[in-house]
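Title: Prediction job returns without error message
Component: structure pipeline
Severity: low
Priority: P3
Assignee: unassigned

Description:
Job completed but the reporter wants confirmation the result is attached to the right record. Sequence as submitted:
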Amino acid sequence: MMSIDEVAKTPQLVASGLFEAVDHPVLGLLRQPGMPVTFGRTPSAPATPAVVLGADSAAIRDRYDPAAEAGGSRAG
C-alpha cells in the first residue's frame, strides 16, 4: 500500500495535475488534491486552503445565538 506522499508523486497523478500547491496561513505551502475532473467550458475555481480551526467561530456563534451578539450569556 502506498503512502499519501507516494500517491502524490505517481507519474499519472503528477501528469494529471490532481494535486495543487496551496499556501496555508499556518502550515505554509501544502499540496492538496484538486478537482479530479476538468470540463472545457466550466473551469473549476482555484484551490484554497482549509479554514484555520476556530477562525470563524465568533461569526457563526453570533449568527445563530442572538444572546451572544447582545452580550448576554447562555443559560445552561
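Comment from assignee: result matches the submitted record. The chain has four helices and two strands.
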